[in-house]
Amino acid sequence: MSTVFIALQANEETRPIIEAITTDNPGAVVNQQPAMVKIDAEDSLVVRRATIEELIGRDFDLQELHINLISLSGHIDETDDELTLHWNA
Amino acid sequence: MDMKTSSGKKLGLKEKYRHMTRGLDWETSYQKREDVHPLVEYEGIKIHDWDKWEDPFRLTMDAYWKYQSEKERKLYAIIEAYAQNNGHLNVTDARYLNAIKLFLTGISPLEYMAHRGFAMAGRAFPGAGPRVACLMQSLDELRHAQTQIHSLSNYNKYYNGFHDPAHMLQRVWYLSVPRSFFDDAVTAGPFEFMVAIGFSFEYVLTNLLFVPFVSGAAYNGDMGTMTFGFSAQSDEARHMTLGLEIIKFILEQDPDNIPIVQRWIDKWTWRGYRVLTLVGMMMDYMLPKRIMSWKEAWEVYFEQNGGALFKDLARYGIRPPKWLDQISFDKDHISHQAWATFYQYGAIADFHTWSPTEDELDWLSAKYPNSFDKYYRPRLKFWREQAEQGNRFYNKTLPQLCQTCQIPMVFTEPGDPTKICYREVDYQGEKFHFCSDGCKEIFENEPEKYKQSWLPAHQIYQGNCFPEGTDPTAEGFDPVSKVLEYYNIGFGQDNLDFEGSQDQKNFAKWRGMATSNE
Ligand SMILES: [Fe+2]
Ligand SMILES: [Fe+2]
User: Fold this and answer.
1) Residue B109 distance to chain A (closest CA, Å)
2) ipTM of this model?
3) What's the CATH code of the domain at A48?
4) What global pTM score does this model have?
5) Per residue in B440-472, pLDDT tens?
6) How many whole angstroms separate alpha carbon B44 and alpha carbon B464?
7) What's the CA dihedral at B335, B215, B101, B503 to 10 degrees?
8) Nearest to B233 among A70, A73, A76 (CB)
C-alpha cells in the first residue's frame, strides 16, 4: 500500500472540489493546513467531473483544477470525465 | 482566420493533445535528423520510439494560456492588494523576512535557470511530446522567476538585503550552493537534465520547498510569498508529472538505460538533498510561527511520498537512491548544523541571524527529542549568553568547502553527530575535499567536471573576490570589508545579528504607527 495525495489551495473555488473528492473517495483523509488542504488516499484517488458539477450547478472542465492545484503524487490518468492518481505497486 | 472542422463535433482531450504533439510534427528532409538533434545520443540513452511518450496532463496550448493567464490575474490582484495595504507589517515579526531574503537570492534565480534549462532540453529532443512539455515548463519557470521578483520587490522598498539577488548569486559564498547545483544540471546532457530537475528536483524535492514552507509563509502572515509560492507550485504539479513520465519513458525504451538512470537518480537525489539543507534551516529556525519541523516535512514528502515512488519504480529494476541510511539519520541534525553555520558567519551573509528565544528552543527540543538537547541546545544557549554579554560570536576564518556541493564542511559522520565528516580524493596531483561519501562518489564519477568548481572560499584566498583595483598589500587592508563590497552587502545594514538591525527598528516603528495614533 502506498499513499497518493492531492493538495489544493483552501478557497471558495476548491470547497466543492474537496467535497466531491471526499464523496468519491470514502477512505480519503483530509488534512487542513494553513492556506491549503492536503488529501491523502491509499493507492488511488479519483476526481470526478460529474460530482463537482452536481455541487456547483454548472459545467466544470477538469483542467480548471490547475488554477488551485498545489501538488500531487502518483501516476496520473486524465480524461474529460475523471482525473485519477494511482501507484502501481 | 477561423478553421472549421467538417463534422462540427468537439474533440476530446486525448484527441486534441494527439493532434498537437503528433499531427503537427514533421520529419526533416534537407537536414539529417542527427544534425538537427545532435545532443540526444552522447549520454548513452537509447530511445526507439518517441511516440510512446504520453503526457498525462494533455494540456493543449489554448488551455495552457487560458489557465496560466487566470493564475496570473489572481496572483497580481493579490500581491497588489497586499502591497497597497502595507501587508508587510502583518508578518509575525521582522525576523521572518530573512527567510524570504534567502529565498529571493538563493531560489528565485534558479527559476530563471530552470527556464533556460528546459528551453535547451526541449530543443534537444526529437520527440514532439517531450518538446511541448519542455516548452510549457520553460515558460512556467520564467513566470516563476518574474512573479517572485515582482512579489518580493515590495519588500525591497522597506527592508535591507533584497537589493541585488542576481549579482549576489554569482559571488556570495552560500549562494554558490544552489547556483552550482543548477549549473551542474544545465551543463549535463538533455536526458540527465530531465532526470536531475524534472525528476529528482521537481518530483522528489520541490514539494518540500513549496508546500510546507509556503504554507508556513501563510501562517506567518506573508500573503505575497504564499501567493507566488502556491501559484508556482500549481505548475509544479505538471512538472512533477513530467519528471515521472520522463523516467518511465526512458526506462521502458531500453534496458541499457537502467544503470545510467540509476546513477543519475543516486547523484541528483543527493545533490538536491544537500541544497535542501537551506530549506530545513528556514523551516526550523526562520519561521517565527512554525507549522511543522523540517524532519516532519521530510518524513511526509520524502520518506512517504518518495518511498511510494521508488516502490513503484522497482518493477523497472530501479532501487531507491544511495545513501538513504545517512539521509534518514541526518534528518535530526542538518537544519541545526546549518543554522549554527550561518549564525557564525552572519558577518558575511546578506541576511540577519539571531539567537532563538527560549520558546523556540523548547519547540526544537520537542520536535527533535533525539538530538536537540544533547547536541545543539547547549551551543545555542552558550552563544546567546555570550551575545548578551556583548560578545556576539562571529567566525572570521573562512570554512573549507566541499568540492561537489560547495557547502562548508559542517556535516557530521554518518551515525556520529560529534565528529565532522571529511573525505578526500587525490586527482591529478591535487587533493580534493568532500563533505560526505555521496559528494565524494559524485566527484569520482566525473572528476573533469567537478575539479572546475568555483569555490568561493578558495576564490577569496586567491584574491579574486575584491572590487577591481583593490591592493591587498596596502596598509590596513581589511579583507572582510572588501569581500562585502564585492558582494554588494552593506556592512551593519544587510548583515550581522537581527538584534539591533535597521530592519528590526523600522519594523517596530512602522508597526507601531500602523496600530496606534502616535
Ligand atoms: Fe519553478
Ligand atoms: Fe558535499
Assistant:
1) 21
2) 0.84
3) 3.90.56.10
4) 0.92
5) 999 999 999 999 999 999 999 999 999 999 998
6) 38
7) -100
8) A70
